[in-house]
Amino acid sequence: MRKMKKITIIIAIMMLSAQAFCQDIDNILRQIEENNTTLAALSGRKEAARAENRTSLAPPDPEAEFGYMWGAPGGKKNVNVRQSFDFPSLYSSKKALSEQKNNSEEYNYRAQRMEILLTAKKTCLELVACNALMNLYSRQMANAMTIAEANRKMLDKGQTNILEYNKAQMNLAGMESRMKSLDAEKKRLLAVLEGMNGGKRVILEDSVFSTPVIPYDFESWYESVKDENPALAYLKSKAEEADKAVKVVRRSTLPKFSVGFAGEYLRTEKFSGVSVGMSIPLWENSGRVRQAKAEAATAKMEVEDARMQYYSSLKSLHAKAVALQDVVEGYRKLFASSRGDELLYKAYMGGELSLLNYLLEMEYYFSAYEKCLESQRELADAVAELEAFRL
User: Fold this and answer.
1) Less Cβ crowding at N or C end of the chain, within 10 Å?
2) Rounded mean pLDDT, 23-42
3) Are the C-beta atoms of residues 80 and 264 closer than 8 Å to each other?
4) What is the pLDDT of residue 141?
């Protein structure tokens, strides 16, 4: 008896604490975006890469030389200061390439952010299913405790036999075992979410799936979302980056110029003036244009391949989601028309069902309920992947 009261108190405390700190999935995802250490590192890496991209726009460093040659009378001193520069068209191409690289870094960050938040959302959906099962089994454990206690009293009075009493005890033990297993799974999922939330506490007590309706026409839906995926935008940006790199390499084959000051100083004479130079790229850039063009062509092929893979993946997920919508709707109608667990309990307590029939009916109910929850979770997972770009 004490054990049953203790279990009831624990369940009540869990439910009260859950109500006090309830958070929804969207709120948790916002927290994770703010506190996730991986995202913080990715953001820092993005800014570092953008800063590095800007350094390529600076002109080369000036050069200064000083020479002293011994001799009589007094030796000779030479001074040279030079500043080299490229053609203006090369600077404009470098600037365009730098801006495109910055765009690529931004899309890359968004793509990785989307993957992290999608993983977090799917973990939250697992937790919602776990909560729903815990709600069901907590009710059933309370019923099982009442049934077990009633059978104990009936056994003491000789109104039932040991077999019926053992059935009631085994039912209670099964409920307790299932609740412990679900509680351990819930703690595991919360630990995963807390790790993604920078170690900060997360509490999610939602037990009902909220899934938007997916339209049956895939092609029209795909046309409205095909350009929203940041992973595809990243690959497209990299292809544009490769095209701009071709222009930079091609214009790098133009001569470079330098201007400066030159001076030669003897004991008796001094010479100074302007120096002008030009470097002619004969060998350094040999083959680089062909390489850049090949890389640009490869990048475009990768974009087309990724686009086809993305289309196929979404089409498969869409078909799965549409099928699951029908399955979930079927379960909804089934549970709306069938007797619920509470009705079965009332029927048993009213003497309409034997203990054996009650337990068998509950097994059927549990099986159907868990399959329904699994279908709802799979549907929510599919929708989360289809609409991951909205995260």
Assistant:
1) N
2) 91
3) no
4) 86
Q: Name residue 85's beta-bridge partners.
A: 257
Of residues 248 and 179, more confidently modeled? 179
The 3 state secondary structure assigned to 147-199 is HHHHHHHHHHCCCCCHHHHHHHHHHHHHHHHHHHHHHHHHHHHHHHHHHHCCC
d(CA 175, CA 183): 12
Domain that holds residue 330: 2-390
CB 235 within 8 A of CB 305: no
CA pair distance 270, 265, nearest whole angstrom: 4
Residue 91 CA to residue 97 CA, distance in Å, equals 10
Residues in the chain: 391
Kindly calculate the radius of gyration of the chain based on its CA atoms and give it in whole angstroms. 36
Find the CATH number of the domain harbouring 15: 1.20.1600.10
> What backbone torsions phi and psi does residue 361 show, to the nearest 5 degrees?
-60, -40
Measuring CA to CA, how many Å separate 163 from each of 143, 166, 262, 355? 19, 5, 111, 11
The structural domain count of the chain equals: 1
Please state, as a whole number, how many other Cβ atoms lie within 10 Å of the Cβ of residue 96. 16
pLDDT in tens, 171-193: 889 889 999 999 999 999 999 99
Per DSSP, the three-state class of 20 is: helix
User: Tokens 């930079």 label which residue?
Assistant: 248
Tell me the pLDDT tens digit for each residue of 74-88.
778 888 888 777 777
Question: Which tokens in the block code for residue 364?
Answer: 């059927």
Distance CA 7, CA 322 (A): 42
Please tell me the distance from the alpha carbon of residue 352 to that of residue 142, in angstroms, as a whole number.
20
SS3 295: helix
Determine the straight-line distance between the first and last CA of the chain, rounded to whole angstroms.
Answer: 50
The rounded distance, in Å, linking the Cα atoms of 26 and 41 is 22
Per-chain mean pLDDT for the chain: 83
Angular region, 14: left φ>0, alpha ψ -120 to 50, beta rest:
alpha
The CA distance from 88 to 325, in Å, is 60
SS3 66: strand
Cis before 62? omega within 30: no
Residue 377: CB atoms within 10 A of its CB come to: 20
Under DSSP, is residue 63 helix (H, G, I), strand (E, B) or coil?
A: strand
